[in-house]
Amino acid sequence: MLTKLGERFTHVFLKFMPDAFVFAILLTLITGVGAFIWLGSSPLEIITAWYDGFFMLLSFGMQIVLIIITGFSIALSPIINRWIDTLAHAIKTPKQVYFFVVIIGVLLSLISFGWVVITCVLSRALALRVKGINYPFLIACVYFSNGSWVTGLSSSIPLLLNTEDNYLIKADVLSGVIPTINTLGSNLNLAMIFLFVVIAPIIVILLTPQASEDKELKTLLKSNNQPKEESIKSETLSLKLPFKAVSDTLNNSKLLQAIIVLMGGTYIIYHFYAKGLDLNFNIMIFIFLIVGMLLHQTPMRYGIAMKRASSNISGILFQYPFYAGIMGIMLNTGLGEELGQILASVATIDTYPFYAYLTGGVINFAIPSAGGEFAVVGPSLINAVTQIGAGLPEAEVTAMISRASMSVAYGESLTNLLQPFFLLLVFPVMGAGVKLQARDVMGYLVLPFLIFFAIQVMMVLWIPL
């Protein structure tokens, strides 16, 4: 029954879900019209706000691009390919692949949001080696597993709350930092981790669609007439001149690459020694880059690997500015703050976590960035929670703020399953060489969304912090 229902949702999405870029355009227009009708902003004010926000995610977008291509290049190395071949011998059925991929994806995303790329690489490799895999469903499994990032080490909202002199403290919204023991280390968050690690793989198995040959990766690649790609080593050899040359010696020098790897490895050790487990996008990109250089051994091989890894990132390059433009409208017209204030105004001491959760989910469609969204609605929600908790001990008010903030984060993360923005992280790797769009994948995520929504609402309301 669940499988058939999932297939029906998939059919609905195939019929009605536009391309991811069209989705971004529609959201832009809806947000603009909302600011015009609700707040009375003039068309020129809205367009100016849109333009002012258009380039706000350039830095973030570049970080995502580098996360993807440096991670993908690692997977193209011979050592990783041999490891995946060995793994494929132990995983022989589609259900085992789906189950294994979700568990690995959840655990990797707990470490860092960007490590979904590693899950993508592993999943694609398994899809080429194990028969009977529904490839669009496998992409959905990868995307679903990435939701655990909100409970892990790269969760942006709790990290912000624990940052000295953050903008909330400077604006007197908070009196001081909120330690991560109150957020990431809370009973609520530990329960959320359990939900992802244990319940998510079970949900995927229950929703597994029937095998379909026309949806296997090899079939999709053949139907697109993709030529077989030569190995990186072979391409490197083909680029050598027919006579000895200094340029070839430098291009294929293991020594040059080893020196850079040694320098990079030294800094990585120093970084974690000096700063502890400080995982951020920049150090992750640097680690991926240095590891990739180590595995590919020579500058020429690594350059070819990076060229191949960069072949499918156009969606990120031109769509991120459009979402930044939506964020600009929300920020600069006051629409985001207005939404936050309305939802906060109806909350009570019993219901504020639900409304915070709902706020995170709703605003995420317009601002698909937890940090950006919290900058818009966070101050309103925290002020509302502080007023609700007036007269309570300071520790209890801090606990209420922690619960509300994490509820925003959980809601924001879950509604990613209904909108294709962060599929842009997955498709450059998993969509290479195949004609798949967001609509081919999103339908498989509706039931996981509904199940998680029901469970998470109960958790944010009733599990002790």
Give the topology string: H per helix, E per strand: HHHHHHHHHHHHHHHHHHHHHHHHH
Give the % helix: over 70%
Taken as a percent bin, the fraction of beta residues is under 5%
If you compute it from the alpha carbons, what radius of gyration comes out, rounded to the nearest whole angstrom?
23 Å
Helices and strands: which structural class? mainly alpha
> What's the number of extended β-strand segments?
0
Tell me the major beta sheet.
none
Contiguous low-pLDDT stretches (5 residues minimum) are none
Fold and architecture overview:
The structure is a single chain. It is built from 25 helices and no strands. Helices cover 71% and strands 0% of the residues. It is globular and about 80 Å long. The chain is mainly α. The longest helix has 22 residues, at 254-275. It has one domain (2-13, 60-213, 250-462). The model has no long low-confidence stretch (mean pLDDT 85).
Quick gist of this model?
With 465 residues, the chain is mostly helical.
Features:
465 residues; mainly alpha; 25 helices; 71% helix; globular
Task: Produce the secondary structure layout.
Elements (H helix, E strand, L loop, with lengths): L1 H15 L3 H20 L3 H11 L4 H18 L2 H13 L3 H18 L4 H14 L5 H11 L10 H6 L5 H4 L16 H20 L10 H7 L8 H7 L7 H6 L2 H22 L5 H16 L2 H11 L4 H19 L2 H11 L6 H13 L5 H19 L5 H21 L8 H8 L7 H5 L3 H17 L3
Helix pairs in contact: 2-3, 2-18, 3-18, 4-7, 4-16, 4-17, 4-18, 5-7, 6-7, 6-8, 6-11, 7-8, 7-23, 11-25, 13-17, 15-16, 19-20, 19-21, 20-21, 20-22, 21-22, 22-25
